[in-house]
Amino acid sequence: MSLIAAENICVRLGGAEVLHDVSIHLDAGEIVTILGPNGSGKSTLLRALLGMVPVAHGRVTRAEGLRLGYVPQKLHVDRTMPLTARRFLSLPDRHGRAETDAALARVGVPEVADRPMAGLSGGQFQRVLLARALLQRPQVLILDEPTQGLDQPGEAAFYRLIEEVRRDTGAGVLMVSHDLHVVMSASDRVICLNGHVCCEGTPRVVSNAPEYRALFGLGTQGALALYQHVHDHDHDHDHGHGHDHAHPHHHPEPSHRHEHDHA
Ligand SMILES: Nc1ncnc2c1ncn2[C@@H]1O[C@H](COP(=O)(O)OP(=O)(O)OP(=O)(O)O)[C@@H](O)[C@H]1O
Fold it and tell me: Does Cell membrane show up as a keyword for this record (predicted)?
């Protein structure tokens, strides 16, 4: 059984149907990413899975006693409130100082423990949110656009951290992201949402799906092809092509794509 799943759910908000007949599941140890245009229902789907919005039809199931960690899309911290990062990590559940400090170190910002939340940079703030989610010792980590506001190195570092968490804890990770090429290289499965599930599968399957191309266009496909090129190579079967894998290159014509698939 999946850790968390939605089966044929419909969600209505403000009189409009935001999600129609959506099914999704997440298993332990996999990274699944939801992609979709603004307003396509991505955050709503996460919130429905978390039980924060009611479903009009269908059902959401969670494994019994499931521990969830959630990084919301937005979290407003009142600038006048002197809330340090360490104190923030103890809300709503209390955690000891050693535990909160270890969580901050885990996400790479041990130095912010005594600093006010309102004074943190965007990247530091996102990492503290992740630390808070990790303190739940989650079996499922749900992240809603976790790298917003981060620069490119910060974004890449954040995704590496997520991969490490998955590797070290075996947690399943479900996230919403617009960072297409990082997402495509880091996800096991991708779900393309536009009120309903347009297409889903491995990054390669989704990036080749007409529904995906209709939503994101061919420009994105170019970026995806590049990542597939890099990651689909099996270095034991290089056939003497002598590629320099540190410098991925992209063949614009699909017929020139050079994808080995020796799995
Ligand atoms: N509480 C609400 N009441 C009424 N409508 C809502 C509510 N919350 C969201 N919506 C609407 O539901 C739709 C989906 O919103 P949602 O935030 O899930 O989209 P999203 O795909 O996460 O968008 P974005 O990429 O912009 O974050 C939007 O049209 C939004 O205006």
Answer: yes
